[in-house]
Amino acid sequence: MGGLAEHLVMDSVTALTRIDTQRARAVIEADQRLDAMQRSVENHAVDLIAAHRPQGKPLRELVAAMRISSDLERVGDLAKNNAKRVLAIEGRAYPPRVALGVEHMSDIALEQMKSVLDAFTSQDLSAALDVRSRDDEIDAIYTSIFRELLTYMMEDPRNITFCTHLLFCAKNIERIGDHATNIAENIHYLITGEQPVEARAKGDSSSYLSADWAEPENGRGGH
Amino acid sequence: MGGLAEHLVMDSVTALTRIDTQRARAVIEADQRLDAMQRSVENHAVDLIAAHRPQGKPLRELVAAMRISSDLERVGDLAKNNAKRVLAIEGRAYPPRVALGVEHMSDIALEQMKSVLDAFTSQDLSAALDVRSRDDEIDAIYTSIFRELLTYMMEDPRNITFCTHLLFCAKNIERIGDHATNIAENIHYLITGEQPVEARAKGDSSSYLSADWAEPENGRGGH
After folding, report:
1. pLDDT of residue B203
2. Which residues between 178 and 217 in chain B have a beta carbon less than 8 angstroms from any beta carbon of chain A?
3. What's residue B100's pLDDT?
4. B56-89 and A21-52 helices cross at what angle (nearest 10)?
5. Nearest Cα to A122, choosing from A72, A59, A190?
6. What is the mean pLDDT of the segment spanning A13-20?
7. What DSSP designation does A123 have?
8. Whether pLDDT at A197 is above 70
9. Domain with residues B2-214, CATH architecture
């Protein structure tokens, strides 16, 4: 599931930066496989818990597997949503540099996904906690992309639809980063039996962004 | 969990339509309780599966409880995100009718939540399937709000930040509707042992919305 989820994210970003609708359609199609795998992991874990009544770490392994497969299934949904947006913005005028930020952000999200899946395979607690601490970086880039896209929208209303879709794409990638963080927390639980002590504030600070920084003073022109 | 999740959704929408920051902060605070309850439901279900090795319907009840509590926890996250956006748009000029669509949409989402939780309590399969079939209505309203908000943004760039936050709020409510649908599908699974046969296409059609309908012909002036 991890490998497939990574591929969906990678392909959806490539589809987005190149406006490659064929690749986008392939992502939408392949996401169904991830959904089926998640259901199968869950059923299998429940069967094993019922059959063997595991305790301690063996039980935590099955619970963590269920939770992580649910995170990966949602990562696939987010990649699929970005792929759908490629179909919406196809054929539109495209200010190329606006996609650069989204691409950079998704490179980091993909690195986070890869690191956390490696940490799961090698049961490496400190690697998992590293992933968790790096999520702030994605959130910061998202907040900066949010501002940048709003500025483009204010500069020229013809950018509004395109930039709105890109905003949702960026938000989806930020959420992929959150799922990498969830997985890191489940690795902590798997290894130690506890959730990480200090609850991380999840999500981006753009939810709190007031617009004063970006408000054109007299109706047009951005800042 | 269902009652608390409903309250968070209701309060976050009231906070949004009245720009009531105190209520918004209370939602953000209360969401933590929902998260704790979800973890506790999950732990309890796993303990019961290991202790009693249930089969058939008793096993499905525990699996469904885990899945539904996970949906409710995410409904709380979405309400919390909307509450955060109230803090972002506080004190801003507010075209009142733009919030009406969001309010209408959330009334339907809340009705869906209420109906699906009732269907769970009474194990009423046909009521659950009704909820599932009504999700299209929320998606249609969301798509119409998406268009309306983009039009406001094109009419006046001073609306852009506010409308962008409202767009994300509307999207969050649309996702709350999706979670009601997920819960309906889990009730189907609980009662019949099968997932509903015909997989529903989830999500909104606005992901596919190209902008041609809303593109100003010469740079300004709406649609």
Report:
1. 52
2. 195, 203, 207-211, 214-216
3. 85
4. 130
5. A190
6. 92
7. T
8. no
9. Up-down Bundle (1.20)
- DSSP per residue, B116-181: HHHHHHTT-HHHHHHHHHHHHHHHHHHHHHHHHHHHHHHH-GGGHHHHHHHHHHHHHHHHHHHHHH
Residue B221 confidence (pLDDT): 31
Residue A68 pLDDT > 80, yes or no? Answer: yes
Question: For residue B212, what pLDDT is reported?
Answer: 41
Residues A84, B203: C-beta atoms closer than 8 Å? yes
A82 touches A173 (CB < 8 A): yes
Residues B38, B69: contact at Cβ < 8 Å?
yes
1-30 in A: which are within 8 Å (CB) of B? none
The Cα of B208 is separated from the nearest Cα of chain A by a number of Å equal to 4
Interchain contact, B207 vs A162, CB within 8 Å:
no
Both tokens of residue B215?
A: 């593109």
Q: Is A207's CB within 8 Å of B89's CB? A: no
Cα–Cα distance, A17 to A11 (Å, whole number): 10
Angle, CA A148 vertex, CA A9 and CA A15 arms, to 5°:
25
Q: B54 in helix, strand or coil?
A: coil
Look at residue B91 in the predicted model and tell me its pLDDT: 77
Tokens in use for A184?
């890191």
CB pairs under 8 A between A and B: 121
Nearest CA in chain A to B156: A219
User: For chain A, what are the domain ranges?
Assistant: 2-214
